[in-house]
């Protein structure tokens, strides 16, 4: 193939490099010119075009991509029609993706003009999801290069979607004194939701003492009637002879591997009993967040074997996002008494329901509401207060003149609450264990109320979300653990801390502080009822 300027008299059969207009006709990029097209271009006064001229042994980009895709051996995958030199391949079923990396590397080494990209090895996929794409870079490639790729593809299955099977799973939860039934119930709900994506079914749950013999008896019974058994220990495995691995062996099974190089997920146990797989779930599996348990569970449900060697090879890429509710975070927080909490006071809103007035500047007992709220934040046990400004930023800053707050401006305040939350969290100190999100329009919140939330957060060791409540109903402020900060970066639109807490499925401690938790002043009537006076 030759690429470059082509005299119009020699352009028949050439492929346009750029969109070109001839009178009222417009030829798209990659259009192959016919004799009629050439005549139209001449009539428009075009003497030369930039194009690709194919040699006799060249294949067009679409023909090359289609031939390569047609030569591939795969399962549960379909190829879409070629377009612009690309063939996309999609999953025909939900399952786990597997790929022969050696074959993919060999294809991509043939020539830079031919490329193939795929999902990662063992990636979970949904039906209809794209799993691979073949892309020809130029407008045409030599047929000999395509022949070389086709020869590589003849070497066997290049990739597959291993479809999930209708697996029946029995669950055992062990119990120690003090463990709450609500924790066990939540674990069951999280597990059922985790299985729903694969179509597997939780058939039976048994709760036993955290002892070898009762766990072994329950495992043996569930293995007879199910395809898999999952054991949630009330206490994490601390030794390879601990309750869960010992119970598997006591029941007549074999422990394949105890411990895995995936975090969260280190304390997983994998065994076999009567030909069925048994998983001792790590504590992080009680959370819906991705962890090493998912990696093993999904593969087994998809009919893939998981060996000790497989688990040993999961370390690269095995450092996953921290789970806030883990009993033992990988980086311990400061001692409880010294847990540092900062306040993020949101004061960027437009007060859109106030008819043009800024509710944060409304006077309460002669003082602007935003200043009143900031003074109460500064009077609490929080180490510092970050004020996020946006709408009428200069007026808000003037109202706070002389106070020892940290200002963070949000130029994107019109995009919604999440934008202010991101800006505020970004200014929280690196040594803070948590951030309390305080709304600027809550006149009933006192310094003592804020301190009660901080004290509850410290008593819990900084592991949970602490939320103000009134008569059992959720309210504001909300105190977020630092482990949640990375998730805040993914919020969009008018969503805030409440949305984040619900989406992450975290443990929440509600602290009753009275009606201050539920009184905000979103409307003129509400503001006046609360004792405020709007200013122009």
Task: Quickly describe the structure.
With 536 residues, the protein is of the alpha/beta class. It is built from 16 helices and 30 strands.
In words, what does this structure look like?
It holds the Pfam family NTP_transf_3. Keywords: Magnesium. There is one protein chain. The protein is of the alpha/beta class and 536 residues long. The chain is 28% helix and 28% strand. The protein contains 16 helices and 30 strands. A 7-stranded mixed β-sheet has the order 26-25-22-27-29-28-30, sandwiched between helices. Strands 17-16-18-21-20-19 form a 6-stranded mixed β-sheet, with helices on both faces. A 4-stranded mixed β-sheet has the order 7-15-10-12. It is flat. The mean pLDDT is 90.
Low-confidence stretches: none
Q: What is Rg?
A: 31 Å
Please, how many helices?
16
Please summarize the sheet with the most strands: 7 strands, mixed
What general form does the structure show? Answer: flat
Oligomer: single chain
- Average pLDDT works out at 90
Q: How much helical structure, as a percent, in the residues?
A: 25-40%
What is the tally of beta strands? Answer: 30
Strand content: 25-35%
- Separation of the first and last Cα atoms: 72 Å
Q: Going across the biggest sheet, name each strand in turn.
A: 26-25-22-27-29-28-30
Query: Structural class of the helices, strands and pairings?
Result: alpha/beta
Features:
flat; alpha/beta; 28% strand; single chain; 6-stranded mixed sheet; 7-stranded mixed sheet; 536 residues
